[in-house]
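Notebook entry, structure prediction.
Reason for the run: the old model in the group folder had no record of what sequence produced it. Starting over properly, with the input documented here first.
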Amino acid sequence: MRLGLYLGYAPPGTNPTELIALAQEAERLGYDSAWAAEAWGTDAVTVLSWLAATTTKIKVGSAILQIPARTPALAAMTAATLDLMSGGRFLLGLGTSGPQVVEGWHGEPWGKPLAKTREYVELVRTALRRETLEHDGEHYQVPYRGDGATGLGKPLKLMLRPLRAAIPIYLASLRRKSVELAAEIADGWLPIFFSPERARTTFPVPFAREGLDIAACVPAVVSDDVSSARDALKPYYALYVGGMGARGSNFYNELVRSYGFEEEAETIQTLFLDGKQREAAAAVPDALVDEMALVGPRERIADRLAAWRESGATTLLVSTHDPKTVQAIAELAL
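New structure, fully documented this time:
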């Protein structure tokens, strides 16, 4: 099982350059990859460009680039450029995000995310192979011939010659059908809220796909005080389970329910959407944190790592901004 460092995105009020030193330390410790994310704050491409320029060996991955934020052609251009300038170290993680961000921030319709993702990946791969880009699908038409078209659009192919025509593509997926799509068309799956004990039963298809990199994200807090380590992560879980989406439309809430935390997920969401964020965090059960995160003293984490090694995950993306935790996990897992 390889180790990766999940940097996420810079918290409000901080500079993403603060994450670079952490990734450089991860490279020194033997981590295989470092991943940056984007929501509606710092973008991932700028951070990854800076990171690639200041490291030499560690792979740099996007977890994720938001599909509604970029055309497939731009995503291919970005991937090819980052891969070329990093010496073949780029991993292209893609995801649809959720309706709140897609419609509320990017001003794009949520539509049919599975069909859109399939077309998007097909277009990105076609462009990276330097084939002439022509596509007539439900979501993308290249060249464009619809309303407002000038009729001057012509099929083009990528001008630069990619270092690799087959840059690995990862998909972030939470629901059964989207996870199955990742197993079908991608090189890797980026699961969040991964349960070592339940993921294989909940999502059997990707574990049967030979060669698929299952790069599971795991929040980590190394501390002699297990209770305080759990408490440090509970606001994070409350935000996603309670606040990322609306009642009846929250993919993270659905996932936690599928893992057996139905009542707890309902309580967390109700409290959070009622403006009681602290109470929502307090309602996150210890068992949920223990199952999906690595928390506590080194000995406890070492024992828990055994479950992750046996889970079927092939890469462990350690989510932390703490240098001591980065070092401790390397010493325990590598």
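Summary: The first helix runs from residue 17 to 29.
The old model has been moved to the deprecated folder.
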